[in-house]
Structure to design on (206 residues):
């Protein structure tokens, strides 16, 4: 079984996807981490994440160790991931890995293009979103929880810029698949969102 969970940044996709995977006994892949790892490799090499050749080489050279790094989250990694993700050759280099991962034992995958490009025939497709304000509050709380300091205005501006870049890029833009179910979590807490998502998954699979 393939469950595709797409949506904008900080909509709570990761938490939901992880919990659904645990509830159903399926492997879980956070595909955003792939783009984050590519962005980090490019930055490490002193290159610009918008540099097509450098980003493509980094995507082709990824290893397991790249996903274990502790610096894949935070504003710098967010921005670099969004930049490399707009490069078609980077996306192409990551495509087989994602498909292979899903077809071993089935999986829950979260990202931007899982239901549109990676697994257009997924058994269940959820498009998880929330208002910019709700996502800003959640991301702000998460950053403060890590003991870091940032202004809420900066968080809001970062999310809005990343949404815009992810939605308007030519390669695999963030878009709700025509057969995906919309789940707006703006007024839900994490438990409510999980209960709703699990019931949607069950409706589609029994
Ligand atoms: O889900 P995330 O915030 O960790 O994703 C980081 C960036 O990677 C995001 O700006 C968009 C990109 N991404 C993508 O283009 N396609 C995916 N399947 C997952 C993430």
């Amino acid at each position: 079984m393939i469950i595709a969970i797409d949506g904008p940044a900080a909509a709570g996709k990761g938490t939901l996807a992880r919990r659904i995977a645990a509830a159903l006994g399926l492997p879980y892949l956070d595909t955003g981490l792939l783009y984050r790892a590519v962005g980090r490799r490019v930055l490490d090499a002193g290159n610009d994440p918008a540099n097509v050749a450098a980003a493509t080489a980094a995507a082709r050279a990824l290893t397991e160790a790249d996903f274990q790094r502790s610096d894949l989250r935070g504003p710098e990694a967010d921005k670099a991931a969004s930049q490399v993700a707009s490069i078609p050759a980077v996306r192409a280099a990551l495509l087989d890995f994602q498909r292979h991962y899903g077809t071993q034992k089935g999986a829950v995958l979260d990202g931007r293009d899982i239901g549109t490009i990676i697994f257009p025939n997924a058994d269940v497709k959820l498009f998880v979103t929330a208002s910019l304000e709700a996502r800003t509050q959640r991301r702000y709380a998460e950053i403060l929880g890590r003991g870091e300091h940032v202004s809420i205005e900066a968080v809001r501006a970062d999310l809005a810029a990343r949404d815009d870049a992810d939605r308007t890029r030519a390669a695999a833009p963030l878009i709700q698949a025509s057969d995906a179910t919309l789940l707006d979590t703006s007024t839900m807490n994490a438990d409510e969102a999980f209960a709703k998502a699990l019931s949607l998954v069950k409706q589609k699979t029994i």
